[in-house]
Design goal:
Organism: Lysobacter soyae
Structural class: alpha/beta
Domain ABC transporter: 9-207
Keywords: ATP-binding, Cytochrome c-type biogenesis, Membrane, Nucleotide-binding, Translocase, Transport
Bound molecules: adenosine-5'-triphosphate
InterPro entries: AAA+_ATPase, ABC_transporter-like_ATP-bd, ABC_transporter-like_CS, ABC_transptr_haem_export_CcmA, P-loop_NTPase
Pfam families: ABC_tran
Helix content: 25-40%
Oligomer: single chain
Radius of gyration: 17 Å
Low-confidence stretches: none
């Protein structure tokens, strides 16, 4: 009998220290395929810091992040991870379509998730030629969600995906996550609010500032 495969993501005793004070200390959890972990916590609790460590954008003081059992090293990106951060990772002088093309060149693209389909999926059909700089904050968030939806990554790390969105946009985020999890993907989602619908709350991690 073959050994069980390791979970998609393992946080092993993660400690992150800023200015000599720990943000989180010996944090350990796992997220597997078909799971969504909702990360909740007050302002400053360390949610963004945690997601950036998991994305490999920040190095922990101690502990490690494992993806499919393999040690992840800090880097600019990882093929198994689609990260949606607080700050728009869009090129302001490129159009919506060009931004998605650029992301596909860097991150790859899921079959059938071409630019037209991605814009339509997030409610931006017809915005192909609009510059990212002239999109509203909610439309920029939708474009960032289109990037995530188009990527072939199994693990979505979504930092405040509900921010700037209207009610229909909040429902869209929950739909996208449910669909992804239903297809065997996984997601970590941070929020302060109660926006995450039940399918997005497979489990909850309540983050409390370590000191
Ligand atoms: N670049 C930075 N330099 C110094 N301190 C930082 C930096 N980024 C975050 N911090 C500090 O680290 C702590 C955790 O911040 P983080 O952004 O991870 O919290 P959060 O839970 O995401 O907060 P919020 O809910 O307000 O978005 C805070 O005290 C914050 O002030």
């Amino acid at each position: 009998m073959s050994p069980p495969s390791p979970p998609l993501l393992q946080a092993v005793d993660l400690t992150f220290v800023r200015d000599a004070s720990p943000i989180f200390d010996q944090l350990a959890f796992e997220v597997d395929h078909a799971e969504a972990l909702l990360v909740q916590g007050e302002n400053g609790a360390g949610k963004t810091t945690l997601l950036r460590v998991l994305a490999g954008l920040l190095a922990p003081e101690q502990g490690e992040v494992r993806l499919k059992g393999e040690l992840m090293r800090p880097s600019r990106g990882h093929a198994d991870i689609a990260y949606l951060g607080h700050l728009p990772a869009l090129k302001a002088d490129l159009t919506a379509a060009e931004n998605l093309d650029l992301a596909a060149g860097l991150l790859g693209k899921r079959d059938g998730h071409d630019v037209e389909a991605a814009l339509a999926r997030v409610g931006l059909a017809g915005y192909d030629d609009q510059l990212a700089r002239s999109l509203s904050a909610g439309q920029r968030k939708r474009l960032m969600l289109a990037r995530v939806w188009s990527a072939p990554a199994a693990l979505w790390l979504l930092d405040e995906p509900y921010a700037n969105l209207d009610l229909e946009g909040i429902a869209l985020v929950n739909d996208l996550i449910s669909e992804h999890v239903g297809e065997g993907g996984a997601a970590l989602v941070t929020t302060h609010g109660a926006y995450a619908a039940p399918p997005v709350r497979t489990r909850t991690l309540h983050l409390v500032r370590a000191s």
